[in-house]
Amino acid sequence: MTKLLKLSDGTLIDAPTDDVLDVAHDQDLMTAAPALDGVRVVRLAFPKFRDGRAFSQARVLRTRYGFQGEIRASGDLLPDQAAFARRVGIDTVEGINEKRLEDFRFALDAFRYAYQPAEDGAPAHRLRSNTP
Amino acid sequence: MYQYDDIDRAMVKDRVAEFRRQVDRRIAGDVTEDEFKPMRLMNGLYLQLHAYMLRVAIPYGTLSSDQLRVLASIARDYDKDYGHVSTRQNMQFNWPKLIDTPDILDRLADAEMHAIQTSGNCIRNTTTDPFAGAAAGEVEDPRITCEIIRQWSTFHPEFSFLPRKFKIAVSATKEDRAAIAVHDIGLQMVRNAAGDPGFQVLVGGGQGRSPYIAEEIREFLPYAELLSYLEAILRVYNVHGRRDNIYKARIKILVNEMGVEDFRAAVEREFDAFRTMGPAGSLDLPEAERARIAHYFAPPAFDRLPLESEVFEKAKANDPRFAAWARFNLHPHKVPGYASATISLKPNDAPPGDISSDQMDALAAIADQYGFSDVRTTHEQNMVLPHLKLDDLYTVWQDLDAAGIGSANAGLISDIIACPGLDYCNLANTRSIPVANRIQRRFADPARQAQIGELKIKISGCINACGHHHVGHIGILGVDKKGEEFYQLTLGGSADEDAAIGEIVGRGLSTDDVVNAVERVVDQYLILRSDPDERFIDTYRRLGAEPFKEALYDQAA
To answer: pTM of the full predicted structure?
Structure first.
C-alpha cells in the first residue's frame, strides 16, 4: 500500500484508491487546463528536487482553475521543500523516505509566518499589528 | 531604514533554528554533503577552494552603523578580521567554520540581518542606487520598492527552485547607478504623462558567458501592480525557463529564444489572470502596508544650510590630498549644504572590496557622529556615507584617512571591480586580485590617475563574469589555456543608463603582458580624446575599437 505524507499534520496515511490524474512536470497549465471534471486527485511530479515547476502547477490548479480535490506530489521532494509545497496547495507527498519523516515534520512546523498570500494561511501583512 | 517587527524577527529566527538543526545533522553524519548542499546554499554558505564562505545579505546595500559593527564583530570573532563587499552589495566572509555558522546567523538575526537567498536558484538580494534617498531627481526612494520586493521574494513558495538564480535591480533616477540593464529584471521608476509613479520594466539582461542588455517589456507599469507583474514574469520563467543546461537556464536565454514579443504576451496573459482574481486574490500589497514600509524610508532631519560651505572650501584650498578626495569621492546631495561620499575600498595593493573589522568600526563611528548612522554598500565594491554636511567633510575625511579608507580614487582607474578569482573561488580559471593590484601599481601616481579621469576597469577570473568585465570600460577576462593564465581584453562596456557590452579585442594576453596592454589602451585614449573632459568611454563611443586595437597590436607585435 502506498503511503502518503499529509502536509497538513505530518501524519502518514494509506493512499486512497481513487483514480489519479497525472500531470507531467513539463505540462504548461497556464495556457491550457487539464481535464479536471470528476477528478479527485491530481498528481504532480518532482523528477529532481531542483525542478520547481510543480510549485507553479499547483498554484495554477488552485487559484486559476479552482481545483478543490487532493494535489499529490511524487518524486524527489526534500523535507525542506515540504512547507513550500503546502503553501502552494499540495496536500500530500507520495513515496517519501521514511527515515526522513522527522525531518519532514520538523520542516512543516519550522516557520510561524510567511510574507506571501498562500493556500495555507494569511500573508504577514494581514497579521501586522504595529504601525510605525 | 526598515525595522523589523515581531513577524520579521520570527522569520529570521525560525530560519536560524532550522539551519542549526541542518548543520547539527551534517556534522553528526546524518545527512550527506550532497543532501546538505542545497540547504547550506539557501543560507548563503558556499564551499570554496580553501574553506566555507558565508555571504551575508545587505538588502539593497543599506546598513545601520550598529549593523556594520555586528559585521565587524563577526569578522573579528569568526573570520580573519575582514569582510568583502560583493557586486550584489552583500558582504562575504571567507573563512568561517561550518560549526560556527549557526551562531553567526544568530548574531545577524539579533541585528535584523540574515544570509537568506544570497545563493541558490532563487530571487537574490535586490540591488539599487547607493545614493538612494540622497540623490537629486528620484521619483521616490527606491529602497521602498526594494524592501517590498525583499519581503515578497523571501521564502517565496513558488519561486525558490527556479531554473537558475534571479536578480532584480531598481533605479529611481534617470542616471542608472544600479546597472539595471544587466539584470534579470531591471525596474526603472518613472512617472507617466499624468504624473503617476510607476516602472519601466526591463527583462533578460545579464552577464555570464552570454551577456545581454535587457529589453523593455513594459513601458509603464502602475506602481501598485508591481508584485502581480513580477509574479507573472517569474511564473513564465519558472514554467518555461530551460532546465536541461545550466548555462542556458537564465531568463535572458528564455527571452532570447521565445523572442521578446512572445515573452511579453505570455507575461501579460498571466498578469491579466492575476488582475481578474480581484482584491481578495490580489498579490499586491494593500496601501496601508505599502505606507507602513515607506514610512521607514522617510528622510532624516536635515538642517537648513547654505549651498556652499566656507570651511569646506578653505580645507580644499589648504590640503591637496583632501581636495583630491573631494573632487573624486563626493556626489551631489539633493539637500543644500550636504554631500554623499564614496568610501573607497580600493587602496593600492589590497583585494578590491575588502574592509577590516577596525575599519568597519571606524566607519560606523563616523556615520554615527556625522552621517545619521546610515551606511551603504555599492555594487562597485565600495561603501557610501549618503548624508554628510559639507561643513563636516574635512573632519570626516581625516578620520577616514586615519583608518586607511580615505583613498581619493572613486571612479578612477584604480577603483577596480575584481572577482575573488583563483585566490578563493573553485570556479575560477585565473587570479583576478593580483592583476587589479598590478594595474593599481602601474597607475599609482595620483596626478596620472586624475589626468585619465573616469575609467572603469572590471576583472573576472572566468567566463561566469562575477567581476562584471562585460560592462567595464576596459574589461579583463581570465582564461585558462593549457594550464597557463591568459587575459582577454574587452573595450567599451558600460553598466549605466547607456549600458553596453564591451567588445572583445584581439587575442589573449599573458600575465606579463596584460598590464602593459591596459597602459597602451590608456595612452592611446589620452592621445585621441578631444579634450580633457571627454571620458574614456566617450572617446571609445566616438571612435570605436579600431584605433585602440591598433595601439594594442602595433606595439605588442
So the answer is: 0.96
